[in-house]
Structures are given as C-alpha cells and as structure tokens.
C-alpha cells in the first residue's frame, strides 16, 4: 500500500509505477484511476479524486483480493505553523535513558 501513500507525499512517479490510466469527471472534480505495472503488489487498482485546484479529496485502493480501502480528505491546511515543543522527546516516568558512547 506504499504507492498510494507515496503519491500523497509527492514521492511517486506515475509513469514508473503504473501501466494504464483512466480519467472521468465527477461534477467539477476528476477521478484518476491507475493500474500498477507489477502484479506482485498488494493492490490491483488505485483511484484518486482531484479537485480543480489539484487538491486530493479521496483515494480508493482495490486490493488483489478485491478488498477496498477508501480514504476521504477534507480541510487540508498547508504549512500550518506548529509549536517546537511537539517535537521534543519527554520520556515516560521511570524510563531509564542510556546515552550512546562516542
């Protein structure tokens, strides 16, 4: 399931990973459907719903066993400032910290 998530992170080369593409409109949005080049992956089809501004609204993944995963996204916020304290490690009480030697 890495390829669909890699796409969301901007780390996927569609031409390299997928062999065929289809598109169709749904209102003002567009579905992009793709089948992977390799049959050895956990999925057989990936579909992305894109808004006119390029925002990804939905991702649907069909597994090799025909199972379905469906992700819906909303209220996307780009480059939201976050407090540096969110990235500070605080060990739980009673945990021993061992410093590695140099």
List keywords for this structure.
single chain, 102 residues, outer membrane lipoprotein receptor (LolB), chain A, 37% strand
- Level of helix content? 10-25%
Instruction: Give the neighbour order of strands across the main sheet.
Output: 1-2-3-4-5
Overall mean pLDDT? 85
Secondary-structure content class: mainly beta
User: What is the CA-CA span between the terminal residues?
Assistant: 38 Å
Query: What's the CATH first level?
Result: Mainly Beta
> How large is the count of helical segments?
2
Rg measurement, Å: 19 Å
CATH superfamily: Lipoprotein localisation LolA/LolB/LppX
Spans of 5+ residues with little confidence (pLDDT < 50)? none
> How many strand segments?
5
Largest sheet: 5 strands, antiparallel
* CATH-derived architecture: Clam
